Amino acid sequence: MTKVTLVGAGGKMGCRLTDNLKDSKYEVSYLEVSPEGIERMSQRNVKPSDPEDVVPEADWVIFAVPDVAIQKVTSQLVPMMKAGATGMTLDPAAPLAGHLYERDDIHYFASHPSHPSVFNWEPDKNAHYDYFGGIAARQSIVCAIIQGPESVYEEGEALAKTIYDPVTASHRITIEQMGILEPALSETFGAAVVTVLKEGVDRVVELGVPKEAAYDFFLGHINIELALLFGQLPGGQFSDAAIKAIEIGKPLIFKDNWKDVFEPESVKAQIKAIT
């Protein structure tokens, strides 16, 4: 049986992974240092182990800790890992920033959830409101080998499908491409744009439009606009008036060089800032 050690098992992300691992096919050990995290683990009927007892025996060590802590945590634990074992990160930022402890005789793998799509349809109410994923709603994932042989990929993907279950699709990409997806596309670009969308609605409410009317009207229009642009309505297209409004709006709202956010040097700067 493959032995897995989950680091940060009582954290926000760690608890989600603990829930999916504790009854899985893997032999799992859990590491946690905070009293709050240990309490959350006890609610799940799991107990923390001593690193010295479990890390040297682990085939896989999952680092479910914040990006800013990866360097310190891996410097403490990776020296304990046996040769040929694999460390798994849940985000590309720390690996791309060079914050993983260097050892040539171990492997590194990364996987990150896409989270349930806005077009996801779930017949079950609990699944429908699982916006984050990993509980009941379906989602895809991305995976990459950071360091190691090809055999690492199949094992890592299987483990990733377990911790992010239920998974509909797994996309193999490079760790550099994962960095373009996050933080550049999903956070630096996507979260910034979505934040501005909310600020736009707030401004409309300030101008006197009832909040409920503004929310209903805007979210409905966003839904149809996303469907048109992302291929959910084959043959569908914006009206002539909407196309003209877009031509007016884009230069008023966006800088001409906004796509520079995806260029390699910009991505490096973003990763450096968040790690």
Structural features, described:
The chain has helices at 12-21, 35-42, 51-54, 67-77, 93-96, 125-128, 151-163, 175-206, 211-229, 240-253, 264-274; strands spanning 3-7, 27-31, 60-63, 86-89, 107-113, 139-147, 167-172. With 275 residues, it is an alpha/beta fold. It folds into 2 domains: 3-173, NAD(P)-binding Rossmann-like Domain (Rossmann fold, 3-Layer(aba) Sandwich), CATH 3.40.50.720; 180-274, Semialdehyde dehydrogenase-like, C-terminal (putative oxidoreductase fold, Orthogonal Bundle). It has a 7-stranded mixed beta sheet, with helices on both faces. It is globular.
Low-confidence stretches: none
The level 1 CATH classification of the largest domain is Alpha Beta
β-strand number: 7
Work out the helicity level.
40-55%
Mean pLDDT: 97
Task: Indicate how many domains the architecture comprises.
Answer: 2
CATH 4th-level superfamily of the largest domain = NAD(P)-binding Rossmann-like Domain
- Structural class computed from helices and strand pairing: alpha/beta
Looking at the overall shape, the CATH architecture of the largest domain is 3-Layer(aba) Sandwich
Please compute the radius of gyration using only Cα atoms.
Answer: 21 Å
Query: H/E order of the elements?
Result: EHEHHEHEHEHEHEHHHH
Strand content: 5-15%
Strand order of the largest sheet: 2-1-3-4-5-6-7
For the record, give the distance between the C-alpha atoms at the N and C termini, rounded to a whole number.
34 Å
The profile of the biggest β sheet is: 7 strands, mixed
The number of helical segments is 11
General form: globular
